[in-house]
Design a protein that fits this description.
two-stranded antiparallel sheet, globular, single chain, 8-stranded parallel β-barrel, alpha/beta
Length: 208
């Protein structure tokens, strides 16, 4: 069994949450960033995630982008998630504030933004859990892996952006991330998750 960490993001229904959890996902994500077709309310996220972490040990992740940190905290607390993922221009201070409030954290960068960090800037993020994505998250577009020529994060990091059941094993074997994150790659149409594709993705990732 692969040790690859697998996160299924943008879930909105009990059926897709069950597909992810029952097939062995390590984390499920709920979108609270405005403007996404996958955005849900804190109340629905709390209902969908109820018992998942305590019963199954699965991390529940709230995803935010360039929202005021007080708003992030209120929503995350209302959603009863275990983890907050910041997917914009948030600072290390924001990450520390979230952990002080009892949340685990995950900081997303576009691969381009991460590759543009100076060595000293990268060092500041070394102790953080990091996700590398395409420029437009959730669009199903892969990034040019040559952007990582200067190196990948030294600690825990997730690969996202354009992953599907058909390509996840190849990317995982080539880049050796700590884990993978998928949203649009397991959808039957934009914003609509497919339980069968979720299962296929997890099985393919586990085979990497």
């Amino acid at each position: 069994m692969s040790a690859l960490y697998i996160k299924i993001c943008g879930l909105q229904t009990p059926e897709t949450v069950a597909a992810a959890v029952d097939t062995g996902a390590n984390a499920i994500g709920f979108i609270f960033a405005p403007g996404s077709p996958r955005t849900i309310t804190a109340a629905l996220a709390a209902e969908l995630g109820r018992g998942v972490e305590t019963v199954c040990g699965v991390e529940t992740v709230g995803v935010f982008r360039n929202q005021p940190i007080d708003e992030v905290l209120r929503t995350a607390q209302g959603a009863a998630v275990t983890t907050v993922q910041l997917h914009g221009d948030e600072s290390l201070k924001d990450m520390h504030r979230l952990r002080e409030e009892g949340f685990r954290t995950l900081r997303a960068f576009s691969a381009h933004a991460y590759s543009s960090l100076s060595p000293s800037e990268r060092q500041l993020w070394e102790s953080e859990r990091v996700l590398l994505d395409a420029v437009e998250p959730g669009a199903g577009v892969s990034f040019d892996t040559n952007m990582l020529a200067n190196g990948v994060p030294p600690g825990f990091w997730l690969l996202a952006g354009g992953l599907t059941p058909a390509n996840v094993a190849g990317y995982a074997n080539a880049l050796r991330p700590s884990g993978v994150d998928v949203s649009s790659g397991v959808e039957s149409s934009r914003g609509v998750k497919d339980a069968g594709l979720i299962r296929e993705f997890i099985e393919a990732a586990r085979a990497a």
